Amino acid sequence: MTSRRTYHHGDLRQAVLTAALDVIGTEGPAALSLRDLARRAGVSHAAPAHHFKDRTGLLTAIAAQGYELLAEALADAPDLRERGVRYVRFAAAHPAHFQVMFQPGLHRADDPELLAAKERAGAELRAGVTGLPASADAPRDTGMAAWSLAHGFATLLLTHNLDAPLGDRDPGEVFRSLTGLLGSAQLGRGGRE
């Protein structure tokens, strides 16, 4: 006899997370309801609350999972540009996670799992600026500039503002090309000064 805890899924927690990601991907985070997710997963309406307590707990788990996936995507990238490309590709592959991760009002900012996942992803992002020529603020400022560029591109991509300019081109490759253009413009400007 199967225990009620595992249900017919084997992993109710992951089944609810998957259903939530589907809802967020199509309707946005505001459309989430634990009762609806329970119905989609084919379990009692109280079952998701057992794992997540409430809607905020579910969104916190999604954000933590997203930061873990981002850290994995960024790991071992050879340079800052490649970290940006991987950031854009992460957003394209995990749009629901991306939406939730960067809306702090949706999740519990003090959740230990979330904090650990954010720190791991942050460390991977910061690793891209180590070894660059530095003044006192250069690594921090370079990191903010790089993150802003990658995050802005990813956000424009996910909100379909880049559909026409991208056409059928790979967003990661376009991002790589754009960062090359910016680097060339900086080198060109530096040569004239």
Break the fold down into its secondary structure elements and pairings.
Blueprint: H1 12-27, H2 34-41, H3 47-52, H4 55-74, H5 80-93, H6 95-101, H7 112-126, H8 138-158, H9 163-166, H10 171-192
Mean pLDDT: 85
Strand residue percentage: under 5%
Q: What is the H/E order? A: HHHHHHHHHH
Structural class designation: mainly alpha
Shape: globular
By DSSP (H or I, 4+ residues per run), the number of helices equals 10
Q: Which spans have pLDDT < 50 for at least 5 consecutive residues? A: 1-7, 185-193
Helix content: 55-70%
> In this structure, how is the largest beta sheet organized?
none
Termini separation comes to 77 Å
Per DSSP E runs of 2 or more residues, the count of β-strands stands at: 0
Say what oligomer this is. Answer: single chain
Radius of gyration: 20 Å
Task: Give a structural overview.
- The chain is globular, with a radius of gyration of 20 Å.
- It has 193 residues and is an all-alpha fold.
- 30% of the residues are buried.
- The N terminus and C terminus are likely disordered.
- The N and C termini lie far apart (77 Å).
- It is built from ten helices and no strands.
Describe this protein with a few key phrases:
193 residues; mainly alpha; 10 helices; disordered N terminus; disordered C terminus
Q: What is shown here, in short?
A:
The chain is mostly helical.
